[in-house]
Amino acid sequence: MATPEQTGSAIPATAGSSVAGTAGHTPGHGAAAALDAGTISARLDRLPATRSIWKLVVLLSLGFFFELYDLLYTGYVAPGLVKSGLLTATTHGLFGTTGVASFIAALFSGLFIGTIACGFLADRFGRRAVFTYSLLWYTAANVVMAFQETATGLNFWRFLAGVGIGVELVTIGTYISELVPKQIRGRAFACEQAVGFTAVPVVAFLSYLLVPRTLFGLDGWRWVVLIGAHGALFVWWIRRALPESPRWLAQQGRVAEADRVMSELEAKVRSEYGRELPPPAPPVPVAPRGSFRDMWVPPYRSRTLMMTIFNIFQTVGFYGFANWVPTLLIKQGITITTSLMYSSVIALAAPLGPIIGLFIGDRFERKTVIVVMAAVNIVCGLLFSQVAQAVLLVSLGVCLTLAGNIISYSFHAYQTELFPTSIRARAVGFVYSWSRFSAIFTAFLIASVLKEFGTTGVFVFIAGAMLIVMLAIGLMGPRTKGIELEKISQ
Q: To which protein family does this belong (predicted)?
């Protein structure tokens, strides 16, 4: 893969410049095509953050809401699955297939396949199309799953839903990083996560109301799943208002289309801005189409290794708590109904972490935020395992949720910044897939640790994982705040 240093010098573009005349270029035209794509990126990065820019972020964030609803209802419906007799709270043997751990593992097995094997789809077919069809895929799989009567059927359809969710996770992050100017990337991801994580209190409250009950002959957990499936009704509306990523179009050699998207966006922003747009910076040449092996050449090799290590261990902290909150509370002697009520209160904090990010997302280096919040996770988790009073349990649960979700928006932004447009979805899919792989085994390990060592053992296990997170990002992570995506890739 050609690096930016190898593609030649950049040619500045003026504020109103058009690159439509370069439509005949393809990636095979070398430096000229690289500069065409660089010009598109420079035009986008100079845009003020007006209403039209934030509208695109919010629309993608709505897609993320439906995704997180489906991803995170696991822990909240688990008591209902046990109550209905479909699953057991613990497993018979480390890798038993009839326990809650198998249900969690089925989801993350699908997520692993979706991210590691299908991440290239967005690089090949575009961000917009893959965003749409992966959402429809996992919605359909969840509807079928809601009517299963065996653990095997339940786990199979949860696996298929996980494949679609995995593809969607990679695509949304890539899409947002390429649609927004550099000065708001952190806040854009914070917005995405703030909107998305409102799904957590929604699913927690619905679970509190529905899981202990049976309505119209259907167990309450089935209603929780089916309510989430309404996201498919909105997908075409969301899709109509979203343009394809102009960065992706230009990198594919479709420069005329990229110019048309940029011209329309510039016109909207200019009318909202009220004056002429600032001139774009000199464009940084963009690398041609990439391949899997490009992740393993400097500087991407160390970033790939760093984010792989990070994702393997951050999952232990995030899902080790999020997916097990009601079960951990029940293990400490709290009833199903009360544990779901406590979990609902804790879940109210889920959007607050990203909301905080709207104020700090572009003020601090993302690697610094990740390291500090991982330390908070360790301290609060160990304290959580030692208390029994309701106020302390809920307060520490809120702190754990805030820390986890601040880490979440920070690293979703961070990992998309570390790779160039030519391999961004593929690379993010690869490194992120290891969090899914880790979660498959984490579910069984936490079930085993919980059985043998109780809640304290679970949080000691989580603390060790978060310490590795701190070391990986703190020692190996580059700085990215406020830097053009193309320059980070140099």
A: Belongs to the major facilitator superfamily. Sugar transporter (TC 2.A.1.1) family.
* pLDDT interval class at 113 (50, 70, 90): very high
**Nearest partner of 126 among 425, 435, 332, 485, judged by Cα:** 425
Residue from 250, 366, 263 nearest 306 by CA:
366
Pairing of strands 214-215, 218-219: antiparallel
Q: Average pLDDT of the chain? A: 83
**C-alpha–C-alpha distance, residues 45 and 362, integer Å:** 15
Residue 361 burial (CB < 10 Å; 0-12/13-18/19+)? buried
Q: How far apart are CA 418 and CA 294, in angstroms?
A: 13
Residues 50-65 have pLDDT tens digits of 999 999 999 999 888 9
Alpha-carbon distance values, 113 to 42, 165, 318, 442 (Å): 35, 10, 20, 17
pTM for this predicted structure: 0.77
The domains located in the chain, with CATH, are 4-45+253-273 (no CATH), 51-248+289-488 (1.20.1250.20)
Mean pLDDT for the stretch of residues 303-310: 96
Question: What is the model's pLDDT at position 244?
Answer: 94
Query: How many whole angstroms separate alpha carbon 136 and alpha carbon 300?
Result: 33
Question: Residue 376: pLDDT above 90?
Answer: yes
For residue 299, whether the previous peptide bond is cis, meaning omega lies within 30 degrees of 0, is yes
List Cβ neighbours of 67 (8 Å cut-off, separation of 6 or more): 135, 138, 165, 168, 169, 172, 196
Cβ contact 369:424 at 8 Å: no
| Alpha-carbon span 140 to 220, nearest angstrom | 19
Q: With the CA atoms of 298, 301, 304 and 308 taken in that order, what torsion angle do they form, in degrees rounded to the nearest 10? A: -150
Distance from chain centroid for Cα 270 = 31
